Amino acid sequence: MKILYEFIFRRLSTKTKNRLGSSHFFKPLRDVLLRNNGRFKEIFVEIEKYYLEYPIKFRYYASIKSAIKARDKGVENTILRNSIILSKQLHKSHDDCIVIDVGSNFGFMSMVWGLSICKKGTVHSFEANKNVYNSFLKSLDHNNLKNIILRYNAIGKTNKTVKMYHMDTTSNFNKTNNTDKYDMVQMLTLDSYDNQNQLGRCDIIKIDVDGIEYDILQGSLEVMERYQPLYIVETNDDPRIIDFFITNNYHILDMALEPYILNTQLPPNIFCLPK
């Protein structure tokens, strides 16, 4: 059945997929092809890739679209390679890093780190979409990745319970016309998570949550001061993120690992190192 779903998905044009995704008329067909009991239809693929010198191999559970893309092209390859390069520059040991992955989605990046620079370390992963979290958990169980700690939490600038609206494989704090489905999720700050768990060290923090990156940064000031980690942050064209790192005495690099030039177009992601 997995092969059949993949075959059908590949034969659909991008235009057809978009129409299936948005049209109420095509909802019955969309539900048959892409959904299962009101959620995305899950498949697994076998991932076999190299990230620099690290051979990476794992089974990956995700939505049809995400799984096929991951197997064929990988996920955020530039970010992963850059994180490995910078990790080597910052640390003598290359396999015991402590990474915090905020907005881990189906866990591709977390698992690459868990099998490379964190092989003897730990990845702390956070995902606030329950269905996506469950798929990631299935991958961890199958691959026996004990060095990845997965938490079903939102991360922000305060500790509180929040309403998370789910749009298939993503989540948002704001209700949209596309969904009225939500879960109540416990939000934590990274500072409170560290205080509760006494990490003792943090080498990399990656933040990709579609809009509240700045709030998350504000909730990580103690972690920043304590551990001076490398930050990898999706900017979403938010200039406050640049100001935050300048204020806190960090270098800012673009996707090519070149110094970011102030007042120019923001890169989609930035790499921020303590001075």
UniProtKB/TrEMBL annotation:
The keyword Transcription does not apply. InterPro entries: FkbM_mtfrase, SAM-dependent_MTase, SAM-dependent_MTases_sf. Coiled coil: none annotated. One of its GO terms (biological process) is methylation. One of its GO terms (molecular function) is methyltransferase activity. Keywords: Methyltransferase, Transferase. It holds the Pfam family Methyltransf_21. NCBIfam families: fkbM_fam. This is FkbM family methyltransferase. It comes from Gelidibacter sediminis.
